[in-house]
Amino acid sequence: MSGLRRSERIVRLTQTLLEQPYRLISLTDMAEKLNSAKSSLSEDLAIIREVLLKEGIGTLETQAGAAGGVRYIPGVPDQQVSDFLREMSRLLADPDRILPGGYLYVSDILGRPDVLDKAGRIFAHIFSMSGADYVLTVETKGIPLAVSAARYLHLPTVVVRRDHRVTEGSAVSINYVSGSRRIQTMSLSRRSLPERSRVLIIDDFMKAGGTAKAMCDLMKEFKAEVVGVGVFMSTSEPTNKMLEDYVALTVLSHVDEITREIRVEPGTFKISQKGEL
């Protein structure tokens, strides 16, 4: 393949980087693929980095040495985060979402690819410095969120089951008390998670925190460290949850089945330029 023009190289480099966040991409391999000198690619990458930083959508991190390369670190502009959370709060406050018992119907929102993509990017930005090895969730509604976050963190996803499946081999199971005060069981295959892993928990909803705490307790059986917990929505009540350290993108503060009134507010977390809380 003949050498490409700079504009063509930049487009191809940008596409490769954006499609594989957090993955270290070899400059040697890219130079061969694009039939270009490493010096030319370095200049192209400097342009891409400048644009990413200017737009607030991330940066590039380089690693020197024979095995070195470059990786894309995703970011989300503060204004985009604010706009997204306000829009989610507006959609979730629709009175037609109220279900018997004061629950909200959110499956349609968590089935939208644009919502999952933005939420996953935000979670990845929040927990980019956590050092997680795996993203963990519990079936079923939290799975798409966890997969989206894992994609932007370039990490594998592990799913905790409500019951043990023979096809997954030997497993660890624990009983726990859910937010509705019912005794439930969750199970995880021993082969799905190496011991002493660092785990990021992502889920769709938290009320009292029973499910999230149970996942943390389950991780102790694998000698794993939980480095963060993120949920799409939490409730303001009860204030004393079973788990203290977590991030909620939105907060459900009030539901009245009689007056059909709902109040949902954006979460109050902050993100620094490096993705630290």
Structure description:
With 277 residues, the chain is of the alpha/beta class. It has 2 domains: 6-74, Winged helix-like DNA-binding domain superfamily/Winged helix DNA-binding domain (Arc Repressor Mutant, subunit A, Orthogonal Bundle); 78-266, Rossmann fold. 33% of the residues lie in helices and 28% in strands. The protein has helices at 6-19, 27-34, 38-55, 78-92, 113-126, 143-153, 210-221, and strands at residues 25-26, 58-63, 69-74, 98-99, 103-104, 134-138, 157-160, 171-177, 183-189, 198-206, 225-235, 247-256, 261-266. Residues 272-277 have low confidence and may be disordered.
What's the structural blueprint in terms of helices and strands?
Blueprint: H1 6-19, E1 25-26, H2 27-34, H3 38-55, E2 58-63, E3 69-74, H4 78-92, E4 98-99, E5 103-104, H5 113-126, E6 134-138, H6 143-153, E7 157-160, E8 171-177, E9 183-189, E10 198-206, H7 210-221, E11 225-235, E12 247-256, E13 261-266
Parallel strand pairs: 6-7, 6-10, 10-11, 11-12
Antiparallel strand pairs: 1-3, 2-3, 4-5, 8-9, 12-13
Helix pairs in contact: 1-3, 5-6
Protein name: Pur operon repressor
Domain Bacterial purine repressor N-terminal: 5-74
Subunit structure: Homodimer.
In a few lines, what is going on in this structure?
By secondary structure, this protein is of the alpha/beta class.
